[in-house]
Write a structure and sequence with these properties.
Layout (H helix, E strand, L loop, with lengths): L3 H11 L4 E4 L6 H16 L4 E4 L26 E5 L20 E4 L10 E4 L6 H10 L7 H14 L10 H11 L5 H9 L4 H12 L2 E3 L4 E6 L1 H7 L12 H4 L5 E7 L5 E7 L10 H7 L3 E2 L3 E6 L3 H19 L6
Parallel strand pairs: 1-2, 1-3, 3-4, 4-5, 7-8
Antiparallel strand pairs: 6-7, 8-9, 9-11, 10-11
The chain binds manganese (II) ion.
Length: 331
Amino acid sequence: MLTENQISDFSELLGKDNICIVMHKSPDGDTIGSSFALLYALKRMGKNAEIVCSDEIPDHFRFISDGIQYLDLIFEPETVVSVDLASEALFGEKYDYLSHRVDFAIDHHFSNTLYAKKTILSENTSSAGELMYELFKCSEIEIDKYIAEKLYIAISFDSGCFRYSNTSSFTHKAAADLLQFSFDASAINVKLFDSSSLAQLKLESEALNSVKQYKNNKISVVTVRYSQIKRLGVNENELGGLTAITRRIAGTVVGITIREKSDGEIKISLRSQQESPLPEFDVSSVASKFGGGGHVRAAGLSMNCSVEEAEKKIIDAVIEEWNRIYDNSRQ
Ligand SMILES: [Mn+2]
């Protein structure tokens, strides 16, 4: 449900012109789908609008970006809008300078650092796409087939095809409404969730072989080194599926995915899933100890050290938090 303020902030945005939409670095289905829906809506209103992204659009997401690989500044913007960016760090190197002059942030991360002049934040929303849908519905923007398809992609992507706990009845209602425009949702979901290159699958198999478990197998850790990625020829931006591995191991409450990047930086993704009545494990609180952020059940961070050191630091931090939350003797 949107507040009056959110609706009026969005209508203020629609009153602007020469608008630059910023997507987050390592763009995903949510930031791309939501941004393209907004771009199209603004252009249809006769506005001058553009999208920028510090990173290239990965091959497997180009069906969302209408085939576009690079999104760079075309004109000097008067208004800057970020979509799905929880913090300044997510602007990426190339467009970092825009993070200091954001007029509107449209986001659904409760960890949003409020870097923008106005933040349209909806914490209990599955995706920026779902929030964008609500904003469009409360504005003069009419949803058509193009917009419906982009927003559906964004919502489906961030909700893990409606499987994650962020999926609510509103998420399904939004999707049901969008599906009336009869695009091929089945094909979209196959592309988003059921299609990997053989190299990607081989890397996942190696990742599975690396699994370490702690706390009665409730904490699962996957580690992938850059040498493996390079040997198998997997593109660095095709590694999104790795973070899903720990979730698929039955009994896992906290999943840790550690990945070494080509520049030596260690990227760590944290996931949690806990059934009531046990309390949730808030992975964003662990991530924030290392300068990262995210949601209760999904968060990320980076480290600049060796893989071994990163493994030790993050496993220690997760176990410390584990002992704090749960009665140690019962686990
Ligand atoms: Mn998102």
